[in-house]
Amino acid sequence: MTEHGDTRLVDKILKLKQKRNAVILAHNYQLGEVQDIADYSGDSLDLSQKAAKTDADVIVFCGVHFMAETASILCPEKKVLLPDLHAGCPMADMITPDKLRKMKKEHPKATVVCYVNTSAEVKAESDICCTSANAIEVVQSLPEATEILFVPDQYLGQYVSTKTGRPLILWPGFCPTHVRILASDILRLKEEYPKAKVVVHPECRPDVTEIADAVLSTSGICKYARESPETEMIVGTEIGILHRLRKESPQKRFIPVSEQAVCPRMKLITLETVLWTLEEMAHEVKVPEKIRVRAKSAVDKMLQIGSK
Ligand code: SF4
């Protein structure tokens, strides 16, 4: 039961969820009250795998639009609902299919690796998808001499390029939330908490990832917090993750690099909008079949690497 949510609201959601045979998936950046009523919390990769395996008829996706689209790509027979249609990802909006097609014309032999934070149409124009959890493996899976276009996150791309030693042609996209995580704040906190390990997300700027002890996806950060012997961690990602970290490891101390690292689109989803979605069975996110089939090919290639 949620600590923060209204109990009656939660009861209504749970009853309606059962009636609709729905599953509720929540990204690690969602409000704590939303994470608490979810069947599964996780990062994009976890949630897309959960979506692919569920036998529910309805998927309520508490995240942003591209995540609901990814669920629709993988499960066309299910009804995928996004509680608030304004919950989009500004980074995903930084590249359009037209812009990508233009870039491909300039690099006709290149393989396009697209971060999962892209629209279904951009995925359809790409060769293989990746998430922050598997981007290094995805790039390493491509033959050595391959010319690679990496879209849209320049900082994730730069990090992957450094780790793999592979040159990547980058798109100048970025996450407006993660660029608020500053190296100067980390250095200040390290003085205050000298024993704390610094764990950040690869969407952060290079001067931030360079000084971190670990650079991990949100699920990777949760695993690190649960399994490492460290008792203090300075956390550089969207602050919604602190709810899960503190719930899973209550004896440990988690210090956010910046309270400003909030994704406003993720926070549009509340218990009220989740209930509304289940009542109205809206807003449905459905990817047109022609685009879905092409986008699925890029997502499937990624999932195959994950399962090797
Ligand atoms: S945190 Fe950044 S990348 Fe993630 S949904 Fe928000 S804007 Fe997009």
Structural notes for this entry:
By secondary structure, this protein is α/β, with parallel strands linked by helices. Helices cover 43% and strands 15% of the residues. The chain has 14 helices and 12 strands. It has helices spanning 7-20, 32-37, 44-53, 65-74, 97-106, 120-124, 135-140, 154-164, 183-192, 206-210, 218-227, 241-248, 271-280, 289-306; strands spanning 22-27, 40-42, 58-62, 79-81, 111-115, 128-130, 148-151, 169-170, 197-200, 214-215, 232-236, 253-256. The strands form 3 sheets. A 4-stranded parallel sheet has the order 2-1-3-4, sandwiched between helices. Strands 6-5-7-8 form a 4-stranded parallel sheet. α12 (241-248) links the parallel β11 and β12. α3 packs parallel to α4 (65-74), α4 (65-74) packs across α14 (289-306) and α11 (218-227) packs parallel to α12. The longest helix has 18 residues, at 289-306. The radius of gyration is 19 Å and the shape is globular. The two termini are 37 Å apart. The mean pLDDT is 95. Iron/sulfur cluster binds at residues 29, 64, 89-91, 117, 175-178, 203, 238, 263, 265-266.
